[in-house]
Amino acid sequence: MTIKGQVNPGEKLTFTIDAADAEKRLDIYLNDFFERYSRSFFKRLIDDNLILVNEKSVKAGYALKEGDKVSVTFPSLPAPKDLAPFDKDLGVKIVAQEPDFVVLFKPAGLMVHKPNEYTDEVTLVDWLLASYPQLSSVGIPERPGIVHRLDKDTSGLLLVTLNNFAQHTFGDLFRARAVEKIYWALVKGHPEKTGVIEFSIGRDPVFKHRMIHLPVKGKKRDAITQYKVVTYYKDYSLVEVRLITGRTHQIRVHFAAIGHPLLGDALYGKQSKLIARQALHAKKISFEYQGKKYSYEYPVPEDMQKLIDQPVEAS
Q1: pTM score, two decimals?
Q2: pLDDT (0 to 100) of residue 204
Q3: Cα–Cα distance, 261 to 279 (Å, whole number)
Q4: Which of 61, 93, 183, 300 is a Cys-bridge partner for 105, taking CB atoms 3.0 to 4.6 Å apart?
């Protein structure tokens, strides 16, 4: 038996392990039992003592035994944040509204969702819950409707699902690499006119908020970035980037790895007097959903456009 749908926030489920599931790891068993939730999601619940075995706390790697009673309490949604003290739209623009999804422009400086429970910063998720109350039962409670993300200081297009069917379908599309994402970035120096960057990417073992590139494939998650130069300027270049994979900080890590970090990227390059954030914009998103093709574009914000409008490098 498996549970295919969404579980209501705050709901508690209890079940007994039979012989067929004995010896399975607890987190793997739960991941198989609840199809719409990830193993990392259950790991967090286990760490928060929201999952108990025989009314006791256990580790994610606990080996289940026949007859064990497992209880799972799904976290309640936090109360929507009061947006009154803030600009109510937070700079978010609705680019397209469909019955199953909405495509938004997210401005630089706005976090998509909280990285942890201690963050008090207003996020796009706060705006979404205030604007689309039905999202409270869509997807993972901490990031309802979110199927992909943009870094806080990256601007551009973001797709948000409005129901669980769309959440599941778009999740499959992203995993199958069937969603095309095009970015514009301003990078230091003059890279080759076209290129493919294929360094693997992993978490920095010392600075956990950073990612690192690894020249040997297979040790970490493979990552592929295609790019072409749109314009060369005196000290920087405008590049159009197509992501084949979607790893954390992929564009930023890959261009830093080839010696052309993004302008303004203080994490993987240097701060810049030209722009106050990494010069990265999600410009276009295209996909096929329910037999129909969709494609959306959004122009770069003013801070990047000013640099794009500068005199070009003489050819």
Answers
A1: 0.73
A2: 76
A3: 10
A4: 93
Beta-strand pair 101-106/180-188 = unpaired
Task: Using 50 as the pLDDT threshold, list the residues of the chain that sit under it.
Answer: none
Give dist(CA 171, CA 201) in Å, integer. 21
**Which segments within the chain are labelled E, that is strand?**
12-16, 51-53, 69-73, 93-97, 101-106, 155-161, 180-188, 194-197, 200-203, 211-214, 225-232, 236-243, 280-289, 292-297
Active-site residue identified among 151, 153, 303, 309: 151
Q: What distance in Å separates the CA atoms of residue 85 and residue 64, rounded to the nearest whole number?
A: 49
CB 53 within 8 A of CB 26: yes
Q: What angle do CA 177, 292, 160 make, to 5 degrees?
A: 60
Residue with tokens 């942890």: 116
Dihedral sign from CA coordinates of 191, 193, 198, 203: positive
- Please tell me the predicted confidence (pLDDT) of residue 273: 94
Contact 244, 177 (CB under 8 A): yes
Q: What is the DSSP string of 145-161?
A: TBSS---TT-EEEEEEE
Is 151 a known active-site residue?
yes
What's the confidence (pLDDT) of residue 266? 93
In one-letter notation, the amino acid at residue 254 is: H
